[in-house]
């Protein structure tokens, strides 16, 4: 009797195809990795492509912490049209001639959306309002407001401005942009707000995520490639890439294994999770400093 192969243990960096939800990708990976224990570190809209970080087996314990890291995107914003979803997936709700909008005006409006800003997420989104997903309320025709929340847009750059004509004959402008931002930032909401500030409306027509924390497109694989050869980043390597590293001696490793909260060096105070390794290089736990002690977030050994 042949034993069932052990599922891989680590992160899988997927280059998500357009048209797939993040859950679709997770379902596909469950089949490829032959395990139900698969999750993702933050969703990517169906229209969008690019980096989607998946955790398999024990690496699922890292996902909630990886989801909080910085993201980077390349996209196209169309000025001159609003849509119900703030992207090309939704029905067009208004049109305006955008041919008069100058590059100077675009740069001024972009500057207002850079830095620490308050953003209202798109109504057709997974944000919960009183326990119900925003997109469900929108589809049910409800009138509701989503409160603004703080996000950080570290960089918002316009690489190119292209004149175009929409299908209905409206002169529009297509902006090729890159955005580096905090977790929870909606790029399509940036497109909507940019168009609103310029008085012509705007929405996102293309989006590609090029980075999640330290994980970039060059290490991502398509689902077809993963079907041929499953490429998994071991949990220890994933933790080293994403978090600060703390190497401890054998005595402290034993104490940590017994549930003792270790005294943490001052250099690790604040700044988020820290990956703890023993003298043999084994990844023991993800911890954070709390009152000078190491509070365990996830234990791996």
From TrEMBL:
<comment type="function">
    <text>Responsible for synthesis of pseudouridine from uracil-55 in the psi GC loop of transfer RNAs.</text>
</comment>
<dbReference type="InterPro" id="IPR015225">
    <property type="entry name" value="tRNA_psdUridine_synth_fam2_C"/>
</dbReference>
<feature type="domain" description="tRNA pseudouridylate synthase B C-terminal">
    <location>
        <begin position="188"/>
        <end position="231"/>
    </location>
</feature>
<dbReference type="Pfam" id="PF09142">
    <property type="entry name" value="TruB_C"/>
</dbReference>
<feature type="domain" description="tRNA pseudouridine synthase II TruB subfamily 2 C-terminal">
    <location>
        <begin position="243"/>
        <end position="300"/>
    </location>
</feature>
<dbReference type="InterPro" id="IPR020103">
    <property type="entry name" value="PsdUridine_synth_cat_dom_sf"/>
</dbReference>
<dbReference type="InterPro" id="IPR036974">
    <property type="entry name" value="PUA_sf"/>
</dbReference>
<dbReference type="Pfam" id="PF16198">
    <property type="entry name" value="TruB_C_2"/>
</dbReference>
<dbReference type="InterPro" id="IPR015947">
    <property type="entry name" value="PUA-like_sf"/>
</dbReference>
<dbReference type="InterPro" id="IPR014780">
    <property type="entry name" value="tRNA_psdUridine_synth_TruB"/>
</dbReference>
<dbReference type="InterPro" id="IPR002501">
    <property type="entry name" value="PsdUridine_synth_N"/>
</dbReference>
<keyword id="KW-0413">Isomerase</keyword>
<feature type="active site" description="Nucleophile">
    <location>
        <position position="45"/>
    </location>
</feature>
<dbReference type="Pfam" id="PF01509">
    <property type="entry name" value="TruB_N"/>
</dbReference>
<dbReference type="InterPro" id="IPR032819">
    <property type="entry name" value="TruB_C"/>
</dbReference>
<protein>
    <recommendedName>
        <fullName>tRNA pseudouridine synthase B</fullName>
        <ecNumber>5.4.99.25</ecNumber>
    </recommendedName>
</protein>
<dbReference type="GO" id="GO:0160148">
    <property type="term" value="F:tRNA pseudouridine(55) synthase activity"/>
</dbReference>
<keyword id="KW-0819">tRNA processing</keyword>
<feature type="domain" description="Pseudouridine synthase II N-terminal">
    <location>
        <begin position="31"/>
        <end position="187"/>
    </location>
</feature>
<comment type="similarity">
    <text>Belongs to the pseudouridine synthase TruB family. Type 1 subfamily.</text>
</comment>
